[in-house]
Amino acid sequence: MIRRCGAAAYPQRVRRLDLAWPQRGRERLIDVAIVGVVLGWTILMVANGGLGTPGPATRRLDALGVVLSCASALPLFARRRVPATTYAITALATLSLLYLRFPVDVPLGVAVAAYTLSMAYGANPSAVRRRLALLAVLAFIPAVAVVMAGNGLAVWESSAELLSWLGILGGIWVAGDRTRLRREQVAHLRERVERAKHDAERERSLAAAQERTRIARELHDSAGHAINVILVQAGAARLLHERDPQRSREALHTIEEVARTTIGEIDRMVRVLREDGVAGPPPADPGALEELVARHRVTGLRVTTRIEPPRRPLPDSVAWATYRIVQEALTNAARHGSGEADVAVRPGADVIEISVTNPVTPGEPRPARSGHGIIGMRERATLLGGTLETTERGGMFRLRARLPLPGVAA
Q1: Angle value at C-alpha 399, between 393 and 403, nearest 5 degrees
Q2: Domain spans of the chain?
Q3: Quick one: which H or E segment has residue 359?
Q4: The predicted structure's pLDDT at residue 156
Q5: Looking at residue 407, what is its pLDDT?
Q6: Per CATH, the architecture of 288-404 is what?
């Protein structure tokens, strides 16, 4: 019955056992070493007449003894695939050695097979199969006693040795079961880590996709505004063409500038959204930063600002990215900080630098460096060919972003 509840009846347990040794080469080396040690130990013990002084009826090593010694060790090569069958063959071969009066004082092959059987059947969903496997391991000692009695030996004289081996086999069963539990826990933890990595990556991708959707909406609004300006200026140019040629030319010049800027923005944005490259979205007046800061001050956040005027008009994409980054950084400061924030926006000739610093109360939750807000800000900066970094040191959380202006390499 134990043989039937091996790999065929319980393949999941055997497969789980195989997964404990992912490196097949290393697994084979271990099996070769175990079989070599068991076979060498059994043959050496039989050849030397056991561990103690051999009795007069003890049989010396011969060809049959070598065959049975091999039968008690070589099946261990298959112990991972068919643990129940391996244990049965090894135990029967060892009992045969004892029945033929070969001295096998330490049945090492049975111990290894029992350990593997415990790992394979210790968590079998069927309580009957678990108990049968344990019974098969412990029944080896009564079987040895029967063989000794059949040979006319006094079982009581070896009772201490038999009881000690009964305890050893019980300990081997517990050790195998604990090893299986530990390996399953390690495998479960690895699976959880991989799942967490996958979930985090999916969350980052989702946040980036949402940010790009919002950026695309802002580009749509910017293009609509530009088209309205072009429509108004085109109507003015048509009406003033004969009465005021100068103003008509100015209107046409405005149309040209607005169209050129809008086409550049659209081309830049569509190329990035299509190729996951570098660029960003549309309109927000940099002066709106002060209004944004004022709204946060009303909520109780103490904000100091150093917002320098740009040297030249900012593209809509850079202006919007600056606004959104400062907005998200102040939101993080209000949620996770201690009520203060310092904002610095410094437009240069080729890049605009943004720095937001806020103290963090010890023990309070930190701004998540991989949260959706940080991902969204970083996505905006990356789309523009810039960078965004967050650091925490000395109780201060700092966000620094660099956004290159059009025509400047990132």
Answers
A1: 145
A2: 11-153, 203-275, 288-404
A3: strand 351-359
A4: 74
A5: 53
A6: 2-Layer Sandwich (3.30)
